[in-house]
Amino acid sequence: MRIYLAGPEVFLADCAEIAAAKQAVCAAYGLVGIFPTEPPSAPDAAEPAWVRVYRQLEAEMRGCDAIIANLTPFRGPSADPGTVFELGFMRALGKPAFGYTNVAARFGARTMAAIGPAARRRGEGWEDAEGMLVEAFDLHDNLMLEGGLHAAGGCLAVEEVPAEARWRDLGAFTRCVEAAARVLRAQPSSVSSA
Amino acid sequence: MRIYLAGPEVFLADCAEIAAAKQAVCAAYGLVGIFPTEPPSAPDAAEPAWVRVYRQLEAEMRGCDAIIANLTPFRGPSADPGTVFELGFMRALGKPAFGYTNVAARFGARTMAAIGPAARRRGEGWEDAEGMLVEAFDLHDNLMLEGGLHAAGGCLAVEEVPAEARWRDLGAFTRCVEAAARVLRAQPSSVSSA
């Protein structure tokens, strides 16, 4: 069974090492971890690079049986948008979806911290300077993310990891792999290549 | 034909007025705009509110023929994560997808502004203080978003709107509705209810 390993670690200089470490955890549970990879550079290609990258990643997702998404907050109160897109994509295909975050603080508290003194009361809740409500569901990100994980039969693993290890600690990730192995063992592969 | 109207305007106090305005534009093009709505409050429900909200929005998406996503940057360099999840979801279902943003600055420039003086060189590009690369595809957000729109046969409409009108100006939205009407006229509905 193949698991798509979504997350913003692709932006780190040593992402190949992180990919290998994640794939080793998957292998220990009998799973094949598919880390998103860019297609080879092709300066003369008819399509721009970003279209070729997108097509490759979409094909990799379709070829996987499930997704584990690193939803650790990225440059703001929420997860990396590329990872969130991929989570929505895999949920729509009906594939099991698992997520993790290495920041334990809830979405509401993180959003309030980002808004700072500009926060204003709205009824029993809060809004920002633009009048946008702060979600108050006591979740770890926008409700669509945890809602999607829940609907997909998955879970969100949460750990508080020191900032310097936030993008490399695999404790919560490993809990997702365990959960994925349990769920996938009980069902046939959804992709013909597996 | 029914169009799912995704965007963070749901967080505004006057979102009902914005929904009505968007639906009027859709109606002028012969389309039915479906604005995400929360299910009625049910304090005694077996499931928590966020699960019920998620289920309703997912059902609304499945009942639509296409999506128009408001990808205007929300509380950071990227779009609202709920909207991004929905875009990925609809793309995976093979439905036409359109997006718009009322901020013309590119993702790279917005990300660099958010990083500020902590930005460091990495090769010919830039990375943040955590060593995370700044995407350099000259797009308006993470490449998965524009890649998904492109693969779905849609487009991204971009306008620069003054900050005070950013969540209410419907110029770029209207261009998406025009494009959606053109695309949908050429194909049968993908949902049985339409």
Oligomer: homodimer
| Beta-strand fraction estimate of chain A | 5-15%
Spatial shape of chain A: globular
Question: Strand-and-helix sequence of chain A, N→C?
Answer: EHEHEHEHEEHEH
Q: State the end-to-end distance of chain A.
A: 6 Å
Largest sheet of chain A: 5 strands, parallel
GO molecular function, one term (chains A, B): 5-hydroxymethyl-dUMP N-hydrolase activity
Organism (chains A, B): Siccirubricoccus deserti
InterPro entries (chains A, B): 2'-dNMP_N-hydrolase, Nucleoside_deoxyribTrfase
Protein name (chains A, B): Nucleoside 2-deoxyribosyltransferase
Task: Explain the overall architecture.
- 2 copies of one chain form a homodimer.
- Chain A has 194 residues and is of the alpha/beta class.
- The first copy, chain A, has a single domain (2-185), classed as 3-Layer(aba) Sandwich (Rossmann fold), CATH 3.40.50.
- Helix content of chain A is 38%, strand content 14%.
- Chain A is built from 6 helices and 7 strands.
- The first copy, chain A, has helices at residues 15-28, 49-62, 81-92, 107-115, 143-151, 171-185; strands at residues 2-6, 32-34, 66-70, 97-101, 120-122, 125-127, 156-158.
- In chain A, strands 2-1-3-4-7 form a 5-stranded parallel beta sheet, sandwiched between helices.
- In chain A, α3 (81-92) links the parallel β3 (66-70) and β4.
- In chain A, α3 packs parallel to α5 (143-151).
- The longest helix of chain A has 15 residues, at 171-185.
- The N and C termini of chain A lie close together (6 Å).
- The mean pLDDT of chain A is 95.
- Chains A and B meet through α2, α3, α4 and α5 of A and α2, α3, α4 and α5 of B.
